[in-house]
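explain this chain.
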Amino acid sequence: MVLLNKIYTRAGDGGKTRLVTGETVAKTDPRVEAYGVVDELNAVLGLVRLETAADAVLDPILARIQNDLFDLGADLATPDLGGAAALRIVDAQVERLEGEIDRLNAGLAPLTSFVLPGGSRAAAALHLARTVCRRAERRAVAFAHALSPEAAAAHGPALRYLNRLSDLLFVASRHANAGGAGDILWVPAANR
């Protein structure tokens, strides 16, 4: 259990922060950038859930994902500990996302074009979350590429999780748009 009884510490006033290991790094460090965007994604999902609260299928999925994103942030914030236990995303969490994508997608109208963000408020919010998720993935991949192959491997499931999550958020946006019936489709060269 985490106990937070002092919110400000002044330790970060100089532009530095501490990792789980106690190592001090710049707040602009690629690792910090990666888990910072994951935190931003979690906040966006909090706003999304204001729009999906009545959806008995989608809202419980998003609630689980918000919890997973704290695990994912801890994963990215923790360097390879050389075999010591660390909180990591596991393949079962990625597989759960895949199952949820398949279940949501099974009830959707077939796609005939790319989908523009919009339709319902929930769908628009889910598209925003999807784009923030893609940014989190790009930051996490850039961070992992800077590591040794062995150290990067520890974060492999986290990277796969972010990739699947953006797919889930796309499918969820279509679910929120009346199963795809409310999707706004891209019309190539429509305004020429």
